[in-house]
Amino acid sequence: MSYTVTSTPSLTLPVTNSISLTASDINSYRENGYHVIPNLLSPSQLEQWRTVIFSAVQDRAERKYKLPAPDEEDHTNVDFDYYDNVFTQRINLWQTHNSVKELLLESGSVIGKIAAELEGIDCVRIWHDQALIKEPFANPTAWHFDVTYWSFTSLHAISVWIALDDATLENGCMYFMPGSHKVIERHYYASNNTFPEIKIGKNMSDIFGTFPELKQWPTVAVPMKAGSASFHSALLIHGAGPNMTPGRRPAMTIQMMPDNMIFNGKQNILTKEQMDKLQIGVSVFNDDNCNPILYKKN
């Protein structure tokens, strides 16, 4: 399978600020399921991320994935007309744009290291990246948790969500249910090490049909200044508000997994060609060409 790879001018290093976690940061993450880092990016670094990501999104045009239909198929969402108005979503930009790949890999010594320390793992690989841009007056994003959609099963997958512009209450910032990842973990052990798959639709309350105990759970809005980031467990229940403004709310995300994850049969972002080569319970995601290492502890 071939696809065009494009690039932009060489990066200016470093691509993130140097960040060190404290024991309190790690304990808070494991209790609440998320950790916010203000000013992950300096103003000049932010401008570089914006230039690279916006260029790649524009170049991808209307293609969500790297390939045009019919190979491009959404395996996560329902109510597609509604979901298409939640945000502009471009997945695995690193596979089609060398500048994005370089940006992500250069960020690994900070972003990957933070992810590894928060989850207590030694190696972090990229599962996929995605640019998420809430367009003017876009719909809210329903409550969900991430790992249930992915092609591997893990209690230690994690995402970073980087605000490329200010994320506010008015334009659709993230919302979390602190501690809800523990509910999902308990369900996992009670369900023979599996996660229920809840499609992302237009009803914010759909998740409560599976997890009724969360209906009274406290929630928290997480507005962030441009250049700030939040790390959240792939088990954490989260969503986002609507964009009630005439401006865009852009973000760049990286979905990360531990090393040597085993294929569980779900297609998610995988192409049919990839699916045909994988064996459930046997095939391992450890190919650097498909899932590059973002960080590995020495």
From TrEMBL:
One of its GO terms (molecular function) is metal ion binding. Pfam families: PhyH. It comes from the Eukaryota. InterPro entries: Phytyl_CoA_dOase-like (IPR008775). Its cofactor is Fe cation. This is Phytanoyl-CoA dioxygenase. It comes from Rotaria sordida. The lineage of its organism: Eukaryota, Metazoa, Spiralia, Gnathifera, Rotifera.
